[in-house]
Every structure is written in structure tokens, then in C-alpha cells.
């Protein structure tokens, strides 16, 4: 009971802090009369609101084996998610001291229904501890959550530093977003797929729990130095725990050509972590994206390679992840198609032969501005069947712009292979017989009648190959055997609002 009260008090404090902080920014506007704003628009305080709603059904989840983490294994599940996120930003241009800026954003989220395929956001009545059919009480598991997502303050140098570009020094601290390179390794510092926060797909929170970022720009070079602290809930170890933190220190140096694109080299180290396998992990990477062929201005090329190293008392990690991608825009053809191909590889463990752990730790990848399915490697498989480890993927994508104002369409095809099939077992513990995991087709229809709202309809169909069939064989909590030889499909409607 004491722990329950303590948890409830923390939630109340979080809600009050969000309301109070929002009130401070709102109140700040009343200090300055309207004439001040009309004269020079300084300081400037803007308000915004984003909201999202998504409803989805998944049939034959885990290729027929059913939803995990629940007292029974339903093959067909459905849920709805939603969030509301008001925000405020401050911009204060001083005459001779640069620009002060800041931001505050609160997020309230909710999930209803069966939860996701892993059971991470399943309802209270579904969860069980060590004995099937015996639910344990997850304190505070309401699958709704309100908190301050962003609260940061920064300063830009303006023209104060002559050997740098305008605003060539940018320093910010607090809870804020940060993306390294293409977002394959570091982008989302806030893990939400848990009973504590209770939202899986929409991913409205990405800010790092705490951060200090310095950006330096003197084109064609620009650099970032960063300290990041993650905000991640430990569901399995303690249902009443709030967070564990990875503390990350690193830097990124890029060469930028405004016409051709940019290339960069990065390094970061997890200087401390509650997870022994991450404590001391270092990641060195090389990344680039742009239009480097001047005679083919509509050809975009991208690539990245990252090396993970860690040798401590619990693990000797030596892992590799990389991708290469090409896209070509054809504006003269009907519906203005963009055709793309990407190959990505995330290493699997070869410990039986090397004595090391070569499995890629997927860290903090997440949603990017490039849209659905980009780093999740698929609407069905990448989102609900696997993580970015021990996985090689062929990804073919086509984007079309139909002759209806505001409409767009995407068609995706994925072919998945296990990077190291010897490190994969079925859910019965037996080895698999093939490295071919699965294939998937996705169709996404979008309609954006204005810049403020998007309506999106998604259909995904994933078919297991022999490796996927072998992996998904198992017996559920009711003693029913599943052979895993079945398609998984998903139908989803999403609405996003931006103000």
C-alpha cells in the first residue's frame, strides 16, 4: 500500500509540475503589453498543439503463436492509442548578446484494448507473473500517462563570434530531442512501450530525460558535442520502478555541401548504465546522405556504418550495423514516383565460435521524419516481431502522389534474413533450419488536406519463410500447439493533428 501511495504521489507531482510550468509560460506573456509585441515582436512566445489517434487490429500475431505476456495467447488483438501534447516556445533576440530560446511540452497519452503483440502495453487483467492464469498487480498500470516531455533552455551566438557562422555556437540544456546522423542508433531517448507509460505505436515522446548539447558551425564543417540521459522503464525487474538511465557522452563532426549533401563521423560512450551489458559500451560511426551526382540531381544516396565495442566483467561485445540506400525521384512521370532501395544489416551473435558477443544492441532507434516503417524495418515484422539485432533486410519502397490534392501513397516490400541463424531458436528451444525469416508487403494511403492534419490508412501483410516458421513453433498457455505457418496482417487508421 505504501508503494502504491508513493507511486500515485509521483504521478500527481508530475501532473502538477506540468500544469504549473505551462502556467508560468502563459503568465509570462501578460508581463509584456501588446504594444511591446507589436513594436519588435521580442520576446516572442508561441504556442502549439499536436495530437494523435490510432486504432488497429492485428490478425495471427507472431505468425499464429499469439500475443505474449498475457494469461492467454490471443491470435487476434485490437487496440486504440491517443495523445494530446500542448507546447510553448520562447525566442528572445537580444541586441548584442545572441538569442535565448526555450521550450516546454507536456504529453498526455492513453491506450485501450488488448495492447501490443509483446504484451508490453496489455491491460491489467491480462498480465501474469511466473504462473500462467495468475495475474499480478502492476501498481499504477492505468495505461494513461501525463508528464513533461520537453523542458529546455538554450542560447545561440548570433554574430558574436566572427570566425563562426551566424548562430555558429548553439548551447542547450534540459529535456529535449537529439538525433545522431540518420537516427539509426540515437534518436529516441524515451521508451514508452510499458505499463508505466502505456503507448506503443504513436511514440509521442522522444526527448532525452536530461541533456547538454553544444553545436558549432563554420561551414563546410559543423560539430555536435552531447551528453544524453535516457528515460527507460524497467518492466521486467520491478513493476514499481520508474526509470533506468544510460548516461551517454559523445561527439559528431560533419562536412556539409549545400548542394551535394553531408558526411560525418561520430563517437559516443555509455559512461554509466544500470544495465551491465551497456555499461562502458562505445559506438564509432560514419554516416552520409545527399545528392552527390551533379548530373543526376534527383538521385539521393545514403549510408551508415557503426561499430559497437564493450569489454567489461559481464560481456565482450564486438558488433556491427550498417545500411546503404538509394532513392530516385521521377517528377516527369504520372503520379511523380520516388523509387528506393535500402539494404541494412544488424549483426547477430557468433559466441559459439568466437567467444565474443557480436549481437548488435539496437539502443535508441525510433521514429524519424522519414515516416512509417523506416527504422522499425516494417509495419508488421519490424514493429511487432523482432528488434534491430541479428537481422538483414532488403527494403524496396515506392512513393506516389495521386492527382488528388493532399493525397499520397506508399508501397513497401521487405525481405528479412537472420544475420546469424545459428543464434536463433524456436520458442520451444529447438534450432531453426533456414536463415530466411519472412517477407512483408505494406500499403499506406495518406490524405493531408492541410498542413495541420493527416489521415493515414495502413495495411500490412507479413508471411513467414522457413526460418520464421521454425522460430514461431510453440505451445501457448492453453497447451495448444502452433506451427507458425500463417500470415500476420495488420489494418490501422491514424489521424495526426498539428497546430
What report would you give on this structure?
There is one protein chain. By secondary structure, the chain is mainly beta. The protein has one domain (134-146, 155-498): Porin (Beta Barrel), CATH 2.40.160. The protein has five helices and 20 strands. A hairpin with an 8-residue loop joins strand 9 (261-273) and strand 10 (282-290). The protein starts with a helix and ends with a strand. The relative contact order is 0.11. The model is unreliable at 1-39, 125-141 and 235-242 (pLDDT under 50).
What class, by secondary structure content? mainly beta
CATH architecture: Beta Barrel
How many individual helices?
Answer: 5
The averaged pLDDT comes out at 84
Shape: globular
List keywords for this structure.
499 residues, mainly beta, Porin, 18-stranded antiparallel barrel, two-stranded antiparallel ribbon, 5 helices, 10% helix, 44% strand, disordered N terminus
Please give a quick description of this structure.
This protein is mainly beta and 499 residues long.
Q: Could you give the topology of this structure?
A:
Elements: H1 2-29, H2 34-40, E1 44-59, E2 77-93, E3 99-113, E4 144-156, E5 169-175, E6 210-218, E7 221-229, E8 246-257, E9 261-273, E10 282-290, E11 299-311, E12 316-329, E13 338-346, H3 351-354, H4 381-384, E14 391-400, E15 407-417, E16 436-450, E17 453-464, H5 466-471, E18 474-475, E19 481-482, E20 488-498
Antiparallel strand pairs: 1-2, 1-20, 2-3, 3-4, 4-5, 5-6, 6-7, 7-8, 8-9, 9-10, 10-11, 11-12, 12-13, 13-14, 14-15, 15-16, 16-17, 17-20, 18-19
